[in-house]
């Protein structure tokens, strides 16, 4: 479900319905130079390709780069990952006065507070 130009109450209500029924939910809007996008994908599983890191065997090379790990681009492994997304209601209800929030505050764009 994709929403735009909706009130906060409508977005929260539809996200709750989508989350309950395992339906992916996206919402966003733009106000001049400022905008937002939110995604609730519920439990999302995906596969990520990782390049294998191999170390150079000792004595093969001389110099300062001998100890550095090198990427072997010919060998890759597939790693299955799982992410659990929060609901819109939870994202909007963050308590910014706590200790954990102080660290997150530095990474949060000022636009978040404008949109609140």
UniProtKB/TrEMBL annotation:
GO terms for molecular function: ubiquitin-like modifier activating enzyme activity. It comes from Sula dactylatra. This is SAE1 enzyme. The gene is Sae1. Gene3D superfamilies: NAD(P)-binding Rossmann-like Domain. InterPro entries: Ubiquitin-activating_enz (IPR035985).
